[in-house]
Amino acid sequence: MKKKEQEKHESLALVKDRLERLSSVREQTEEWSDSEQEEEDQSCVFKTMEGLEPFFLANRFFPVEFSRLIVKEELLLEDLNRVIETIDKDGFSPSPYLYVREEAEFVDAAALALRLMLMVGEYINKTLLKSDTKWTELLSKVSMTANKAYEFILKNAFSDKQGIRWAGTELHAIKKTSYCNVYFTQEAVRSLVYCVGQKEPFSIGEDEKTIGVIKDACRWLLARVDDNTIFGDEGKTKGEINNTFYGLNGLFESYNYLEERQKKVVLDVFTRFVEKVNRGEEELSWLNYIDVPLKGYPKPIIYDDRSGSGNILTVLCKGRDIFRDESVIDKRFFEILALWYRSLVNQIDPNTLLWDQGRFLICLTARAIEGLLYFSKYGEPVKYELSEQQMLEALKKTLASSQIQQIFLREISKLGGDLKEENK
Question: Beta 158-160 vs 163-165: how paired, if at all?
C-alpha cells in the first residue's frame, strides 16, 4: 500500500473507531453527556447536536464508507426528535453552554441546527429512508426546523455599508455593532453556504438572496484583516489565532463567491497562518472569550468557545485543497500538516478513547473527528507530474546560471585545462 493510501486508510479507520466509541457513550446514557456536569433541567440541545454532527459529516464526506450511520437508528430518531421539539419550545438555545440561567437564542446554535438539519435531509434522501414512515414524518419536521434556523440567522444579522455580520444573540438585545465578531459571523456564513443549491429533499431560501448575504458577510470578515491576521471584533483589537482560523473557516467555505482580489487576501492570511501554527501547539490559546449582551443584563456575559487541534487541522486541509497550486503548499506545509494530525491523534484519552486528555468533551471530540475527516479527504501530498518539455526548460534555466557555468569551467580545468573533442 502506498504511503498516502495508508494514511487515508489509517485516518478513516480512526474516524470509524472514534464514531463507534462515541456511539457507545450515547448508548450508556439517556442523552449526550460528557465530563461536564449539567443541571437536570437543562435541555443540552446544543451538546446533543454536537454529538450527532460527526456521524452525518462522515456520511457526507465518504458516502460509501459510511453509507449507514454508526449509531443505533432508534437512538438517532429519539435524539433528532428531541432536538426539534426543544427548538420548537425554546428556540435556538445554546444549552448547556450559557452560564446564566436565562432564556436566549444564539446564532451559533441556529447555525449548527441548520447544518445538521440539511445533512439529515440529505441522508434520508440518498439512503431511501423517505419510504419509511418514521423517517418521512421526521423529514417534514427537519424541513421546518431548517427553514426556521435560516430565517433566524437572516433576521438577526447586522447590515450596513461595512457589510453583514452577527453578534451572539438576537438583534433586539444588542445595542451596538461593537459586539459583532468573527466567530458568530463565520458560523452563520458556513451554514448559509450549505443552503445554496439545496433542492432535495427540500430547499432553503432563495439562492440569489443567500449568496448576496454570504458575499456581504465575507466583505466584513475581510475588513477584519490587518497584517495578514484576522481580528475577531469590530474594532480589530482581538488578534488571537482562534479568530484567524475561524475567519479562514468561513472564507474557505465561501471561496467560490469571492472576487479575485479578495482571494489574494485570503491566500496571504493563510500563508501567515501556516507560519504561525508551525511554531507549535504550546503557543496557541484554545479558549476564546466573547462578550455577548443579553436583554436585561447591565453588562455583557462571557461566552467561551473551546477550540483545539481539530480546528487547526480542518483549516489546514481546506487551505491545502483551495491553494493546491500555490507556493504555500510545499514540502514544509505537509510536514506541518502531519505534525497536527499526529498531535490530534496523541490527544486521544487512553481511558475514554475520545478527546480531550483526561477530560472527555463532546465539543472537542466533534471538532477532532471533523479534522480527521478533512485530513482523510484533502490531506494527501500533492503529486507533481512534469512533462518532458517542462524538464527541458528547467534544465536550460539551470545551465544558464552563471554560478553553474563557473562550476562547470572549474571542473573542466581540473581535468586538464582544455576542452578537447573526445575520440570516437
Answer: antiparallel
